[in-house]
Design goal:
The protein is an alpha+beta fold. The chain has one domain (6-141): Gcn5-related N-acetyltransferase (GNAT) (Aminopeptidase, 3-Layer(aba) Sandwich), CATH 3.40.630. It is built from four helices and five strands, in the order βααβββαβα. It has helices at 15-30, 36-48, 103-116, 133-141; strands spanning 6-9, 53-61, 66-79, 84-94, 121-126. The protein has a five-stranded mixed β-sheet with strand order 1-2-3-4-5. A hairpin with a 4-residue loop joins β2 (53-61) and β3. The N and C termini lie far apart (45 Å).
């Protein structure tokens, strides 16, 4: 019988794990090597300023303690059209040996239930690289649908990462 997945809000004690997961995710998905010190400071900043968002961590019981196996970050977007807040899912990462075992689905169920219990939350959004078909399939499996919008950006820190439409 598989070990149950436990989902919880991250705290300062998770800074190192989240930093390591984000380094791996950026390398895997965008082939970017992030500056570890800057990233660690960014993780600490979000964990210390909940008005910007929060992380959740997925864990499973290990031999002597719980082991982090996944994470995601939620940030906020105000919608004047809906008079509510969208939760943006970002920085999704599941350790490779746990992929395909329902870790993302468990995290998604957790944040969806939390969002639906808060009348201020009007929906959930995320962005995903066009070529990441595995992620597209995972997101569709939990009921997320492609948006009518294309995303554009001007990145002042990491620089351009443009793609042809």
């Amino acid at each position: 019988m598989p070990t149950p997945i436990h989902i919880r809000r991250a705290g300062p004690q998770d800074t190192n794990t989240i930093t390591v997961f984000n380094l791996a995710m950026a390398q895997e998905t965008e082939h970017r090597r992030l500056d570890e010190a800057t990233l660690r400071d960014g993780v600490r900043s979000l964990l210390g300023q909940p008005q910007y968002g929060f992380y959740i961590v997925a864990e499973q019981a290990g031999e002597n303690q719980k082991q982090a196996i996944g994470q995601l970050m939620i940030t906020y977007e105000w919608s004047d059209w809906r008079n509510g807040v969208f939760w943006w899912i970002q920085s999704v990462y599941v350790i490779p040996e746990q992929r395909g075992r329902g870790v993302y689905q468990a995290m998604h169920r957790h944040i969806t239930a939390e969002a639906k219990n808060d009348p201020r939350i009007c929906g959930i959004r995320l962005y995903v690289a066009r070529e990441n078909e595995r992620a597209h399939a995972a997101y569709r499996s939990v009921g997320l649908l492609p948006s009518a919008y294309a995303m554009y950006e001007q990145d002042f820190v990491l620089g351009p990462h443009a793609v042809e439409l």
